[in-house]
Write a structure and sequence with these properties.
3 domains, mainly alpha, rod-shaped
């Protein structure tokens, strides 16, 4: 009969190459068959740390996957983008965006808005020397 917080279990919790049985995953003792153990708090703590690390890793993998798709486009079926070049791809996209902003700003600055405003005004104002614009 087991006491509270003790567990009976059989079989190795992990493998052993010496043929004498494995190690219990709960108490850390060598197993040779059925034994009763009290869970080791250190092992329980390490298992919880491992679970937390796995959760963090999965979140980071998801972020990297989504970032790669956002930067590189939709993945081909049964393929995934590599992550090794994501910083360079992001840097290139930022540089392209900056160049585009500069080109647009330069075009805006080079535009003769007064001339355009006068032309629009002239189109709206009936002129006796020219026929009205036709649509069609």
């Amino acid at each position: 009969m087991t006491k509270p917080n003790e567990t009976d279990h059989a079989g190795p919790a992990s493998f052993s190459t010496d043929g004498l049985g494995g190690w219990c995953g709960r108490c850390g003792k060598r197993m040779g068959g059925v034994h009763t153990c009290t869970p080791n708090p250190v092992i329980a703590s390490l298992r919880e740390e491992l679970r937390a690390a796995d959760d963090l890793r999965e979140r980071m993998v998801d972020i990297l996957r989504r970032t790669a798709v956002a930067l590189k486009g939709t993945e081909a079926p049964l393929h995934s983008h590599g992550w090794h070049d994501l910083p360079e791809v992001a840097e290139q996209m930022a540089a392209n965006s900056q160049r585009l902003r500069q080109v647009m700003f330069d075009a805006w600055e080079d535009t003769d808005w007064l001339l355009i405003a006068n032309e629009v005004h002239d189109m709206k104002t009936p002129n006796s020397n020219s026929a009205p614009p036709t649509v069609g």
